[in-house]
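Hello,

I think I submitted the S-adenosylmethionine job twice by accident. Can you confirm which output corresponds to this input? Input:
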Amino acid sequence: MNMELFKTLKENWDKDGHRRYHDRDYHQNYLHPSGSFKRKVDLLTPLLSLFQDRIVVDIGSNVGIITYEIAWYAKKYIGVEIWDDAYKQSLFVQKYIEKEGVFLNQSMEEFLSKNEYDYNAAYAGNVLYYFTDKEVKLMEDVMLPKCKIVIFLSCEEKKYETEVEPPIRNDLYNTESLKDILKKSGFSVEVIATKEVPLNAVVGKRN
Ligand SMILES: C[S@@+](CC[C@H](N)C(=O)[O-])C[C@H]1O[C@@H](n2cnc3c(N)ncnc32)[C@H](O)[C@@H]1O
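Support: Only one job matched these inputs. Its output is below.
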């Protein structure tokens, strides 16, 4: 995403009211070279061509800016976001995405239980550790068997809970657990590691 567009999005989000991410300087973080979003995008950019011509589910799509990056490569995208404020902001980003796709204001439990959409790839960055046991099981039983390519990001230092986020319910923030769940579903797994702050991409592929 070029910074011109990012500033346009930020102005719109700011107009939209007082938001948690606004409070936390979330957008400035993205613009900052050491910000967590920038580090994520730098890690993901060389990997996104793996989504070429795929229909990609973005699990916990938040305001949709990673979905925007994914959509450059994907054939279609499906962003699933439980939090309605973030979902509403993603609808503004959607205007700038030239590919076919949809943002859904749903939990992954609802999305996977209904099982209405076709897809063959998935991305999850910093969200799987919020999943209930039921959502983890649905992911293993319903979603992973449909996917040829999966990119999960680890968040090795996720050891604390904040007041605003849901509780951490499992250990799907660490690389080994993410590798295990993908291997169990029959993927061959590769880890692309970053050095300074631990943030790894766990990539699962199958034929
Ligand atoms: C840390 S953000 C990740 C944003 C972005 N996808 C990325 O890679 O940076 C996690 C998002 O997942 C959403 N989320 C958490 N649990 C969820 C669930 N069970 N179903 C759908 N979305 C969920 C949160 O509301 C939040 O917007």
